[in-house]
Design goal:
- The chain is mostly helical.
- Helix 2 crosses helix 5 and helix 6 runs antiparallel to helix 7.
- Helices cover about 80% and strands about 0% of the residues.
- The protein has one domain: MetI-like (MetI-like fold, Orthogonal Bundle).
- The radius of gyration is 23 Å and the shape is elongated.
- It is a multi-pass membrane protein.
């Protein structure tokens, strides 16, 4: 209990937040670094994975290969990738910040599989009759993809992005081990100084950030699901919800 109170005291101490100013070594500055790193890696992964996932989901080509490839990427140890790329870039590209580049590449590799899986599985879940009807109306393949398949697949696409973002937020914590900023710096500093309040405080901050982001994406995913639900299904849900209220007077009679 004392450890939890100490961790909360560390988190809510204004001094640790830079006393009102966002400083590089303060919690606020490290939080911004963590968010920037996450946004950068997920953004690059989106540019790579979404078009590929849409192509696979729309055409069905190379599906088995990509499934096996993404499964292999999920199995890669992130910490091992960090040290591998850090060592590689430190010796071959001395003019670049090896640590930053190693972290970005490793987190992109981590982020791609979930986004890719969400994209192609979302498009594959679209009813084939709907696609055939769109072709019968004279729509081009691009119009079918953009106006029919992607909107209907949006809940699964958002779900893939959601899983990817959470993985990157959690894994970016270990970037501190090779000198990159972020909330992992708090935990690493606490380990070096045997400051358990700081260690637990850093872990709680990462957890809180992940929960907040997960809640935001859960809301987006729900809105996407509601927006793509058939009108009849939404009316049925509403009737089912109102059924007990309408049945009560009949019982009393």
């Amino acid at each position: 209990m004392d450890l939890i109170l100490g961790a909360l005291g560390y988190i809510f101490d204004p001094v640790n937040w830079g006393a009102g100013a966002v400083q590089p070594g303060a919690i606020g500055g490290l939080l911004l670094e963590h968010l920037r790193l996450t946004a950068l890696c997920v953004g690059i992964a989106l540019v790579i994975a979404l078009p590929l996932g849409f192509y696979i989901g729309h055409t069905g080509r190379a599906r088995q290969f990509v499934i096996g490839f993404t499964g292999a990427m999920r199995a890669l140890p992130t910490l091992g990738l960090l040290y591998f790329f850090f060592t590689l870039f430190a010796f071959s590209l001395s003019f670049l910040p090896a640590a930053n580049l190693a972290v970005v590449i490793s987190l992109i590799i981590l982020a791609i599989p979930s986004i890719l899986a969400g994209a192609y599985s979302g498009l594959e879940s679209v009813d084939r009759e709907t696609i055939d009807a769109s072709r019968a109306l004279g729509m081009t393949e691009f119009q079918i993809l953009w106006q029919v398949e992607i909107p209907l697949a949006l809940p699964l696409i958002v779900g893939g992005i959601r899983a990817s973002v959470l993985q990157v937020i959690a894994t970016a914590t270990v970037a501190a081990y090779i000198g990159v900023g972020g909330l992992g710096r708090i935990i690493l500093t606490g380990i070096g100084t045997n400051d358990y309040d700081r260690i637990l405080g850093g872990a709680l901050l990462v957890t809180a950030l992940a929960l907040v982001v997960d809640g935001a994406f859960a809301l987006l995913q729900w809105l996407a699901a509601v927006g793509t639900a058939p009108r009849g299904a939404r009316d049925t849900d509403g009737d089912a919800t109102r059924a007990p209220l309408s049945a009560e007077p009949a019982t009393q009679q």
